[in-house]
Amino acid sequence: MIEAASVTAVMRALADPTRRAVFERVVGADEITVVELTRGSSVTQGAISQHLKALKQAGLVAERAQGRNVFYRAEPAGLEPLADWMGHYGAFWRERFSNLRTLLKEIDP
Whole-angstrom Cα distance, residue 3 to residue 101? Predict the structure, then answer.
């Protein structure tokens, strides 16, 4: 079974819509700084930093310091607990899709 603490940490980190938006911007960039994340958003630099801290604690982002700048990048492996958890319930969906396929064939032979 999947480790519940990891799944919970990832779900909690991504539950906040602002944090999810920050994560999506990090994913869309090779590396990005807090300053770059703050530009064009209605969120303060301090709030962005707090969101990045939560994402880092959940294993979703990593940081690299260079001089005065800290660069953030997505950690794809951080999503593994969530993907594993969702995969555990994949059988449920496969059965439902199979039933739907059968029903559609009956409706429109």
Answer: 34
Instruction: Look at the pTM and tell me if it is higher than 0.85.
Output: no
For 70, the 3-state DSSP assignment is strand
Domain that holds residue 66: 4-107
Domain count, the chain: 1
Secondary structure (3-state) at 62: strand
CATH of the domain at 92: 1.10.10.10
pLDDT 10s digits, 19-37: 999 999 999 999 999 999 9
State how far the Cα of 58 lies from the Cα of 109, in Å rounded to an integer: 49
CA distances from 88 to 46, 51, 70, 81, 105 (A): 37, 29, 36, 11, 28
Tokens representing residue 34 in the block: 């807090």
DSSP state of 30: S
Q: With contact defined as beta carbons under 8 Å apart, do 81 and 7 qualify? A: yes
Burial tier of 73 (Cβ tally within 10 Å: 0-12, 13-18, 19+): middle
Q: What is the DSSP letter of 66?
A: E
